[in-house]
Amino acid sequence: MAVAADPSASWLKSRNDFLSSLGKTEEQVAAPEFPKELCQHKIREKFRLEDVQVSIKFRGSITAVEATKEFGVHLLIQPMVVQPWEVENLLFLTSEEDLQELMVAVFDDASLASYFYEKDKLLGFHYYFVAEACKLFEELQWVPSLSAKVGGDAIFTATSLQGSFQVVDISLRLDGKNVRCRLLLPEDTFQSCQKFFSGLHDESDLHNIDQTQQISLSVEVGYSQLTQEEWHQVVPGSFIMLDSCLYDPETEESGALLTVQKHQFFGGRFLTPSSGEFKITSYPNLTHEDPPLPENPQASAAPLPGYSRLVVEVARYSLAVSEFIKLNLGSILSLGNHPAYGVDIILDGAKVGRGEIIALGDVLGIRVLEV
Questions:
Q1: Strands 89-95 and 177-185
Q2: Residues in CB range of 91: below 8 A, 6 or more apart
Q3: Boundaries of each Flagellar motor switch protein FliN-like C-terminal domain copy (predicted)?
Q4: pLDDT for 317-338, tens place per residue?
Q5: Is 237 helix (H, G, I), strand (E, B) or coil?
Q6: CATH of region 31-200, choose from 3.40.1550.10, 3.40.50.150, 3.10.20.600, 3.40.640.10
Q7: Which contacts (CB < 8 Å, 24+ apart) does range 185-189 have?
Q8: Which of 96, 160, 173, 310 has the maximal Cβ count within 10 Å?
């Protein structure tokens, strides 16, 4: 059976998404860097301002009450639509006080700005401001395929907002005047946002990643599931049956999967016990010769409710991002270890013991040596 020489597009996307996520929390979005300098330049030109500073900060998940109370009782909530997100609705939040500050900065004349302080005229200025923001967003070409537009009439109370929102703060300093705005993304919109930006990643994004950052590969040869009660009964000498195992204790031949943060990126095989070397021979989900994947496709997946995931780990191997990117079929890693010399027992990501893989009849499992 021929070995596939190149990874699939889905494998490359999975790898690039993982690399792009390094250093970010799960809540953050792996978006391209926002062109802040260009944005400030365009605002200066548009309104003939001397000093313009723009700050954008992701705040994470905040309750609707907390997200709106900082803007006082005189707030404006503008429904917006962002395309082509699958779920496209979000809210643009500001206050009457901030709009008045913006007017003074734009008109450079407090008396002229006061003309708009009446509620109906203030609302007209609000729509003008939102329209200009959408136009600026388009001109910046931050993400050419992305567009924003007004999604309905402005509302003046937060009483209808429930639950929590992912929050992005936008602060403007315009010739000494401070203006605050806030984006409120419902959870389903935020997930759509994450999915959209994840789909933008390609090979050209990799040069923006810290190439010296260290990645830890887990070399895994077996999997099982057991309850916490079953684990608490384990003592040295106990036998834990494995749901899947890539090591043959009789021949000492072994395959393994190279995993990073639960992402299985490579399959391969150990060359000899004495050399401690490991050769990459496959990409997951591609045609390959060695090693065979577990017969039970669920064996290495998330554990069933009430069960913990047990991983049989031979070694941890650290390498820089620049070296990880170069790994492909035929790459050889000097692990300095082999399943024949014992394995670590990993339960829900934490090392809890050590053992050796043995066969009891036709059943492969771990004889526990240390807990």
A1: antiparallel
A2: 77, 78, 79, 80, 161, 165, 183, 184
A3: 310-371
A4: 999 999 999 999 999 999 999 9
A5: coil
A6: 3.40.1550.10
A7: 185/90, 186/87, 186/89, 186/90, 187/61, 187/163, 188/87, 189/82, 189/85, 189/87, 189/88, 189/89, 189/90
A8: 310
